[in-house]
Amino acid sequence: MDFRELEEKLVAFRDARGWAEYHKPKNLAISAAVELGELLEHFQWESDWEILKAIKDPAKKEAIADEIADVIIYLTLLAHELGIDLGEAVERKLRKNGEKYPVEKIGE
Ligand SMILES: [Mg+2]
């Protein structure tokens, strides 16, 4: 998987605004968690059915998409600051999950 284009775009956006000094790993990890909290606010107190109904409203769907994007943006920048290749990390974790939960054993 290739996340490099996204990473480069986010870093360029950040650097053009002089925000790099604030993007320490701790700040980015906290920011990702804060944005995840903002995402969860959309689901708090809602039933599965209410969420599926609400998502049909384009404005609500965009608001939720914005929060998902915020989380991904901060996690991508965190991986960048830690020198983690996100594509490699996801591939490696998927491989580990596949070994832990082999398809042949599902349903046993
Ligand atoms: Mg947000």
TrEMBL record:
Any Gene Ontology biological process: DNA protection
Classification via InterPro entries: dCTP_Pyrophosphatase (IPR052555), DCTPP (IPR025984)
Parts of the chain that traverse the membrane: none
Domain of life: Archaea
A GO MF term: dCTP diphosphatase activity
Any GO CC annotation of this UniProt entry: cytosol
Entry-linked Gene3D superfamilies: MazG-like
Protein's UniProt name: NTP pyrophosphatase, house-cleaning of non-canonical NTPs
Organism: Thermococcus camini
Upper classification of the organism: Archaea, Methanobacteriati, Methanobacteriota, Thermococci, Thermococcales
